[in-house]
Amino acid sequence: MASMAAVLSKTPFLSQPLTKSPNSDALPFAAVSFPSLRRRGGGGKVAIRAGLIAPDGGKLIELVVEESRRREKKHEAAELPRVVLTAIDLQWMHVLSEGWASPLGGFMRESEFLQTLHFNSLRLDDGSVVNMSVPIVLAIDDEQKALIGESKRVALVDSDGNALAILNDIEIYKHPKEERIARTWGTTAPGLPYVEEAITNAGNWLIGGDLEVLEPVKYNDGLDRFRLSPAELRKELEKRGADAVFAFQLRNPVHNGHALLMTDTRRRLLEMGYKNPILLLHPLGGYTKADDVPLSWRMKQHEKVLEDGVLDPETTVVSIFPSPMHYAGPTEVQWHAKARINAGANFYIVGRDPAGMGHPVEKRDLYDADHGKKVLSMAPGLERLNILPFRVAAYDKTQGKMAFFDPSRPQDFLFISGTKMRTLAKNNENPPDGFMCPSGWKVLVDYYESLTPAGNGRLPEPVSA
Question: Which of 24, 47, 221, 415 places its Cα 20 to 30 Å from the Cα of 297?
Answer without folding.
Answer: 415
